Amino acid sequence: MPLPSFPQQGGCQCGAVRYELTEPPLGVYNCHCTDCQKMTGAAFGISMPVKTSAFRHLAGELTFYEKVADSGRHVRLVACAKCGTRVWNDPVAAPDMKVVRPGTLDDPSWAVPVGNVWTSSRMPWVEIDPDMVNFEAQPPSREPLYEAWAALHAGEK
Ligand SMILES: [Zn+2]
Ligand SMILES: [Zn+2]
């Protein structure tokens, strides 16, 4: 699935919160940590780190919830004040980055995951593709995931 042209927009379920990505993300991967399972109410979350400089909040009142992740890092979860959809996270230690939830994109079809993190706590029926970039817990660095994403899209315009 090739990358679309940018900017790309997205938003919450009720439509109040809107955002825009002016550049492609750094990567897309699945997170099977127990926090993501709780917060999504699903088997895993999907993380899409983007540079803060490539992200614009266009509209909608936000609410914030700060938590300590399984990794020990502090994360601020950003949600729509009206419908409660969690749209992106602000990693407190990395203000140059935002982690957007690709399911909130208007067109999420191109945001194909290249890896899996926290596979040790995946739901037992979830099959992990061994050809993807996988980590049993928090990866020491996201670079291998970013490299896999870059390799997947190498040669596109
Ligand atoms: Zn909303
Ligand atoms: Zn997670």
UniProtKB/TrEMBL annotation:
MF terms in GO: carbon-sulfur lyase activity; metal ion binding
Signal peptide (from-to): none
Xref: InterPro entries: CENP-V/GFA, Mss4-like_sf
Keyword terms of this UniProt record: Lyase, Metal-binding, Zinc
Pfam families registered for this protein in UniProt: GFA
Gene3D superfamilies according to UniProt: glutathione-dependent formaldehyde- activating enzyme (gfa)
Family, similarity comment: Belongs to the Gfa family.
Name of the protein in its database record: GFA family protein
